[in-house]
Each structure stands twice: as structure tokens, then as C-alpha cells.
Amino acid sequence: MTTQPKVLMIVTLDTKATEAQFVRQTLEAQGVEVIHLDPSIRRSITPGAEITPEDVAAAAGKTIQEVRDLKHEGKCQAVMIEGAIKKTLELHARTPISGVIAIGGSMGSTLGSAVMQALPYGLPKVLVSTMASGFTQPFVGAMDINMFNPVCDIAGLNSITREVFRNAAISVAAMAKAYQPKPETDKPVVLMGTLGTIDRCTVRIRKQLEAQGYEVLVFHTLGTGGQALDKLAAERDIAAVIETSVVEHNDFLNNGLCSAGPDRSKAGLAKGVPVVFAPGNADFMVSGPIDMAERQFPGKRYHIHNRALTAVRTEAEELQKLAQHLAGLVGEAKGPVSVLVPLQGFSHHDSPEGHLHDPSLCPVFHDAVKAAMPARVNVQTHDCHLNDEQFADAVVTEVLRLVTQRQPATV
Hints:
The protein is α/β, with parallel strands linked by helices. The protein has two domains: 6-178, Rossmann fold, CATH 3.40.50; 189-406, 3-Layer(aba) Sandwich (Rossmann fold). Helix 10 (247-254) packs across helix 13 (316-330) and helix 13 (316-330) packs parallel to helix 14 (362-372). Helix 14 (362-372) links the parallel strand 13 and strand 14. It has 15 helices and 14 strands. It is elongated. The strands form three sheets. It has a six-stranded parallel beta sheet, with helices on both faces. Strands 2-1-3-4-5 form a five-stranded parallel beta sheet, sandwiched between helices. It has a three-stranded antiparallel beta sheet with strand order 10-12-11.
């Protein structure tokens, strides 16, 4: 081993030997050491990679022949993903890597991204994938993965793919040479969701908590943002979670575009840390272009956010369903939970300056929450808009109260 930064390269030699050689040469020319992990299934190539298919299969408790004998690409890949993750984490613990690059179609992208998702945030991750144009969520997920679109299929080198591979390799090499792993903050961490429609509220909350000595990590709640919040809630030592934006819950319940799935918010609740809910963005669901929104949610009130996204006004039925869903989640909480409800609007859209304002619906949600929430949950009513300073201040006060009650010495 050298003192050069180490980059893990994940490419199957049985189908992409030419591309692997080109990327390796480009990386080495940039002054990094390459450790090649080869998850090939069809055949093993010699001379091969530093981490061979046999090594990968063995890490998952099988021989490579046993993997091949499964004769099912999905089952074979599941074994190789397990082994590749184990070999990567062992390598990173023994001799830390400073970057990872993977190249593949849907199968190679699935395996490469699974490995990347097991590595720390901040460690450079580059995925050259035929799935990079418009179908990225399954591969990027909640991680900091950079995707390059090869334009052509990954089937040898040509005047286009050669430049894409070269750019991708140079980018990960540059990031690897500059990579400096940083320890987690020594400040107590608060996780919070937001969208631009409630920015006035969440910016004020963040600034006040930062002034109190907290680090506030804010997530864009369009699906993967909430998933990232939950991932960190499960994995890190955190002081509190502020669920200020519930659009992902609404979209899960109503098949909107920003659903984060049925488990959204469960991580913080299961952790036992203080969780404060506010119905930010409860006033709308997210659909696509207006013609799609009209087909998906006929007869509703719409606001065209841009050409790609339409906000669809929630009515009493959706708000009552949301309240019951949140109550179901909170019923399993292992720590303190508070719900703060403003009575004059839930987002900028639901304000006198917005396009979906309906002050008659805030009390509907409030009443449903009061009826559905377990008795131990502190439900507060505030006669203001969610974006008013008064409401942000109330959220901060409640967060600090719950954190102090649970851990008096946190700050």
C-alpha cells in the first residue's frame, strides 16, 4: 500500500474490462491508489482485481460457484451486494479509503450504490450509470452520491463515453485528494424538515437554536429529504427532531410525488428523543404538471408551482386522515412528543398572500389531532399563521423544554 489517497473502484470485469482498465489508468494518472472490487458473476478474470468475485462471494458465506448456481440474477446480486458491502467496510476500517467510483447499468448501479450507501456521508462517491437520466432516486436515495450519465450504453469506449469516464474518474480523484474526514459535531444535533413555503418559520427556528448552542440539520422534505432525516435520526446521537413539514406524510397517504413511505418519522419516535410536530405544508399534496394533477386529483384546487410541480389543496377529508396517521405514528413513540397547531394557515400557499388559503380548514385539522392523539401528547393551539414569528418562537420554546426535561445537561 502507498501513502496516496485510496479510491475503491467497483466495476465488473466479466462485462466491462475495457472500461475498468481505462478508469483505473485515469485514476492512477491523477495520483491515487486504486483498489478494484470486482463483483462479476458470469466468470472470473485473471489477472483480476484486488478484491475478486471469489472474495466478494466468500464474504457473504458462499463460493462464487454457489452464487452462479442460483441461476437468478436478482438472487445472485443480493449475495454479491452483501459480500461487497462487507468487503468494503472491512477495507475502510483497515485502511481508510478516500473515495469510491462505480460504473454500471441497472445491475451495476444497484450494487455500486448499495456499497456507497453503507459508507459515511462526506466520503466522495461517484456513480457512472445508464440510469442517471431521470431515474436516480433508487440509487441516490438519502445519500450524497454524484451520478454521471454516460449518454451511450456502457459497451466499450467511444468518443462520448471515454470523456464521461475520464471526467468521472478525475472528479473522484480530485475529491479523494482533498477529502478530510471530520468527526461528528460536539454540539447537540437537532433534525428539522422544511420547504420554501415554510422557510420563514424554519429559518427563525434554526437561528434561535443555533444561538442556544445546537447544530440544526435541515432537510428538504420532498421524499428523499425525509428519508435522510430518518436515517440520521436512527444512526446518530441527536437531541431532538422537529417535524415542521408533513407534506411527505400527506403524499404517502394520497399517492403524491413526495411520499417518503409508511415509515417516515418512525426513527426519531423510536429513538425516544423529543419530537415536535407542526402541520407545515399540510395544506397541500404534490403532483406533477397541471394536467397530471387534474387527472390524479380531479375537482381540487390547484396552484401551479412550476411546470413540473403542482400543489393540490387538501380538504377536510385529507386533513382528518393526516391527523389520524400522525396519531398512529406517535402512539409508538418512546419519548416525549408535542404537536403545535397554528389556526391561521399552514404554509405560504395557505396564507392571504398565497393561492390555496382556506382559514376554515385549520380548525378541522386541529380538532382531528385533539381527538386522535394519545393523552400523553401535548397538543398546543396557537392563534397565528405557521410562518409568524410567534409560532416559530413557540416551537423553539417547546423543543428546549422537552430537551431540558429529558437531558438537563445536554447544552
